[in-house]
Structures are given as structure tokens and as C-alpha cells.
Amino acid sequence: MLGVFLIWYSLSSATPQEREELWNNIKLAELEWVMLSVFFGILSHLSRAYRWKYLLEPLGFRPQFANSFMAVMGGYLANLGVPRSGEVLRAATVSTYEDIPFDKAFGTIVSERIADVIMLLLITLFGFLIQTERLILYFSENEINPFISLGLLLLLLGFGIAFLNLIRRSNHPFMVKIRDFAIGLLEGMRSILKMKHKKGFLIHTFFIWIMYLLMFYVIKYALPETESLTIAGFMAAFIVGSFAISTTNGGIGVYPIAMGAVLLLFGINQQAGEAFGWIMWGSQTLMVIILGGLSLLFLPLYNQKK
User: Fold this and answer.
1) 142 class by beta-carbon count within 10 Å (0-12 exposed, 13-18 middle, 19+ buried)
2) Where are the domains of the chain?
3) Nearest Cα to Cα of residue 252 among 278, 213, 216
4) What is the pLDDT of residues 101-153, one digit of tens each?
5) Looking at residue 231, what is its pLDDT?
6) How much is the pTM?
7) Contact at 8 Å (CB) between 53 and 268?
8) Are 99 and 306 contacting, i.e. CB atoms less than 8 angstroms apart?
């Protein structure tokens, strides 16, 4: 609902001339660059599905790649509706079709999210090094703390460990069930330490984020106004966009506004910046809707022979 409100507010607060300019920018976007961006996005999702096997193998599970990929895409689709619900759906999907315990599957997803948060923070650090003043200005004006994600993650881990210690000594049947689930979850998270193919996991992790950077970078060539965007501006916009997506349900409503605001700092007018955001967000979201919807449709058909 917040995303819908932000879309309405963004469009209603613009003048008719600004709305017309925004729409014209979107209509005049060069489609080949948009399609290339979508291609890089698909490669990142394929790599994420393949990387997952490195975390599941130490637990004794080898899911089919097709099921892993469809679970990933179905999860991304769910995230558009309810933030972070996709991780639950993804774990439930492989639990259903690959007979992997839900708690262990979910634990591996938490582990890979930790790896992704570390990558995002490294990119954020690099962005601050090359464009410290403008990023600090944007974050302070919008009351954004880029280290909140890591802090919340560490806080959750701390609560999880404290909760495990609390229930460890209880013999109540309900508490025993919770303890068994928590132990399974922890085992799934620890799979990142047991991997035989750590190099493969790292290569795929870097590949995923390189694809993220590329799918964002090539969009700048879709619009004449953003074609001259510098590396510093690109990095700043990428970082802001990443946090906009990670803190909302797929960045709906927030992403275009964030792009318009941050690109304004680099001499790109707000309508062109928001058009950039709408094209980037819209193309990737449409891809997720199509592939995610097809995945949820074909999952039972693909596995019906089992």
C-alpha cells in the first residue's frame, strides 16, 4: 500500500508538463538496452539458483536445477507482494518438491543473504570512497543508514542464539518442536562453513553482483539524458536503488523517486532520473512477474511424475 501511495503522490505532485516529460522519456527509451539489462538480470537469477546447491550439498541434498531456479523466481514474485516473504516461499517450494526439510532450506537462504549483504556493503564502501560527499548528503537528507541492514541481521542472529540457549533446557513438547526447528535452521546456516566448493560459491556470488551492476549500468544508454552519467553517479544511484529495493516490497513506488532524487545530484533533471528509475524497475519487475508466474505454474507440472 505504501508503494502505491508513493506512486500516486509522485505523479500527482508533478505538474502536467513534468508528467508529460516523464512519459515521453519512457516512451523514447531505446529498447535494445532495456532488453540487455533484462538479460543480465536473468543471468543473475540463474547463477543464484546454481549457487544454492553449494549450500545444500553439505546437508546431503542435491535439488534439480530447474526446481531451484523456479523456487528462486517464485520467491522474487512473492517479494513484490510482501517483503521477505519470498525467502519463506522459496524454502517451502524446495521442501515440497525436493523433500528438503524447511528449516534447513531456510537456513541456507539466510546464509546466502548474509553473503549478499556483505557484497552490498563492500559496494557501498567503494561508492563512499569515490563519492563520499554526495552520498552522505543524500543519505542524511533522506535519513537512510546504509549499515542498518547489517546491524539488523546481526541483531537477529544475536536474538536467535539467545533464544536457542533459552529453549535448550526446556522439555515442554512445544518448546522441543521449536528447538528442533531452530537447530535445523542453524544447521542450514552453518552449511556455508561446510562447503567443499567455496571457490565456486564465491565466483557465483561475485558473478551475481557483477550482473546486478551491468543490468543497472546499461540502462543509462537507454535515455539520452543519462548516457553521460559518470561512474561516481552510477555507483551512487546503484547503492541508493539497492537499499530502496531491499527495504521495500521490490522497490515499488520508492525506486523511481529515489533515482530521480539521487541523479539530480549529478546534474540529471528529475523527470529524466525518474524515467530511468521507472525503466529500470519496470523492466526487471515485469521479468520477475513473467518468470515468477510461469515458475509457480510449471512447478507442479514439472514434478507431477514424482
Assistant:
1) middle
2) 20-301
3) 278
4) 888 888 888 888 888 888 888 888 887 776 666 656 666 666 556 566 566 66
5) 84
6) 0.77
7) no
8) no
